[in-house]
Amino acid sequence: MADRIWEHRTAEVTLTVVADGAPLVEREVVLAQRDHKFLFGCIGFEFVPLANDEPAAGPELARLAERWLDVFNFATLPFYWGQFEPERGKPDTERLRRAARWFVERGVPVKGHPLAWHTVTADWLLDLSNAEIARAQVDRIRREVADFQGLIDTWDVINEVVIMPVFDRYDNGITRVCREQGRIPTVRMVFDAARDANPKATLLLNDFDLSTAYECLIEGVLEAGIRIDALGLQSHMHQGYWGEERTLAILDRFARYGLPIHFTETTLVSGDLMPAHIEDLNDYQVPDWPTTPEGEARQADEIVRHYRTLMSHPSVRALTYWGIADGGWLGAPSGLVRRDGSPKPSYDALRSLVKEEWWVAPTTLRTDAEGRVRFSGFLGEYGITAGGRAATFRLEEPGPMSASISVGERRDR
C-alpha cells in the first residue's frame, strides 16, 4: 500500500532555481511544503460561533480550532435548510458567510452541505404544493450558490437520493417532490440550478447507500446527460471499521465512472461499537456513549489504516472526517479529541500522517552546477527560499517532472 501511495501522491522533481534571469549555481536553498493537494477535510460546524464572535466561542473553542487547523485543509459548513432558513425569507446567510470567510482567510477551502435533502429540511415547505416546493428548492439553491460564490465553490448538491422518494419516517416537502417527479428529474433540477448560479463550482452527488442502487442512480444520471463533478461516498463506521479489502472494493466499483471520489462523511468510534442489528444508525439512542482506552487504541489504528487505504487509490481526492470532537452526531465518541479538549491517540496518529510522514518539512538543499535541485514530495504547495529571496510553486501531478522557478527580490532589502 505504501508503494501505491507513493505512486499516486508524489512527484519526483528536478527543479531549476533562477534569480535575476540566471540559474543559482552551487547555492543553498530551503524547501518546505505548505499545503497538500489532497483534501484532508473535517466539518467546521462548531466554529461558526467562533467566526461570529458569539458568546459560546470561549477559549476552549479557540484551542480546538488550533488543533483543527494543524491537521485539516478542507472544511464543510452546514446548510441544512430547516436550520438555515427555519422561517421563510430569513436565511442565516451573513452568519455562514462570516464562517466561510474565517476558513478562507486561513487558507482553507470550504464545501457547503447540503443544498437539497429530505432530512432537516424546512417545515414551511409542507404548506406549499409540490410545484411550489420545487420552485422554492430551485430558488434556494440559486440564492445560496450565488451568495457564497468565491467563498464556497464546492457543494454537496443533493444528499441521499436513493432513499429520498421512499423515505417514510415523517412527511417532508423534498420527499413529496422526489416521489412525484422521480429521482433523476430531481437530480437534474437541483444540479441545473446550482450550475446556472456558479458554472465553475464543483458539484457533488452524495449518498450513504453504497449498494448497487446508488450505482444504478449514477448510471441513470450520467446517461441523462447530467454533469456530476464528483461522487460523494459516506462512511459512518459506528458499527465497526470496514477494513482494507471492503473499502478498496467499494472504491473500485465507483471509480469505474471516471469521476473523482470524495469520502464525504467518515467516522470511527473510540467506544463500544453500535450493535450490528441496527439498520438505521439514527435508531441507536443511548443516554451516554463514552470513549474508552481500549476503543481509543482501536480507533487510532483504524484511522491510520483507513487513511492509508484511501490515499492508495488514485480516484480519491478528498476525505472529510465528520467531527473533530466527541459528542457530535448521535453523541458518539467518534471525534479525534475528547469532550475535555484533550487529543486522543487518533488525533496524534492522523497528524503524524498528514504533517510528518506525508509532508516535506523545511529541508536545506544545494543546487548543482546548473542550478538544479532534486527532491521527492507529496503533491501540493511548496515554498523555496534562497539568500533572502523566495517563491512558491505547486506539484499537481504524480511522477517525474522538471520545472524552473524564479525566486523574487531579496526580502531583507
TrEMBL record:
Q: Would the keyword S-adenosyl-L-methionine be found if you checked this record's keyword annotation?
A: no
Q: InterPro entries per the record?
A: GH, GH10, GH10_dom
One GO molecular function term of this record is:
endo-1,4-beta-xylanase activity
Reaction(s) catalysed (UniProt annotation): Endohydrolysis of (1->4)-beta-D-xylosidic linkages in xylans
Show the coiled coil region(s). Answer: none
Q: Which residues form the GH10 domain?
A: 55-353
Q: Which Gene3D superfamilies match?
A: Glycosidases
Tell me the Pfam families matching this sequence. Glyco_hydro_10 (PF00331)
Q: What is its EC number?
A: 3.2.1.8
Q: Provide this UniProt record's keywords sorted from A to Z.
A: Carbohydrate metabolism, Glycosidase, Hydrolase, Polysaccharide degradation, Signal, Xylan degradation
| GO BP annotations listed | xylan catabolic process
The family assignment reads:
Belongs to the glycosyl hydrolase 10 (cellulase F) family.
Q: What is this protein called?
A: Beta-xylanase
